[in-house]
Amino acid sequence: LKELVACPVSQYKLQTLLTSQTAQSYVMSLLEETMAHSEVINNNNTLLVVLSKEEGAGLGFSIAGGVDVEQKQITVHRVFAKGAASLEGTIQSGDTILSVNGTSLEGKSHVDVVSCLHQARFSKQALVVIWRNSS
């Protein structure tokens, strides 16, 4: 996100990769929100991942956590070997999932997050914002 905020060329390249107006709109609002929060801009741990996949296919990872599960953040439990996340290569086990296709996962139950991930099956692209602990 830090690079996207600072580089209009990268913003343009990303916009041309996105196939839906909804995804393009979400990226623009995400960039505006990022610019308003300097702690995110100065943090290289927040990443925007674009997963390209077949319509009807999952995102290629399983999750753990939720407010109903020991108040844990939503994290990537496992990345599936031939799934969209593995093929793209950025998402790793242990990453915190902040949002999927513009839907914040903060404060959601495990069941609500699973439902959000299932909704992402209906498109050919998914936009996932993750946070990775650098330590």
Can you offer a commentary on this structure?
The structure is a single chain. This protein has helices at residues 2-6, 8-17, 21-36, 38-41, 84-88, 110-119, and strands at residues 46-52, 61-66, 72-79, 96-100, 103-104, 125-131. It has 135 residues and is an alpha+beta fold. It has a four-stranded antiparallel β-sheet. Strands 2-3 form a two-stranded antiparallel ribbon. InterPro entries: PDZ, PDZ_sf. It holds the Pfam family PDZ. Residues 48-120 form the PDZ domain. This is PDZ domain-containing protein.
Distance between the termini: 19 Å
Task: List SSEs in N-to-C order.
Answer: HHHHEEEHEEHE
Number of helices: 6
Fraction of helical residues: 25-40%
Structural class: alpha+beta
As a whole number of angstroms, the C-alpha radius of gyration is 14 Å
The fraction of residues assigned to DSSP E strands is 25-35%
InterPro entries: PDZ, PDZ_sf
Domain PDZ: 48-120
Pfam families: PDZ (PF00595)
Protein name: PDZ domain-containing protein
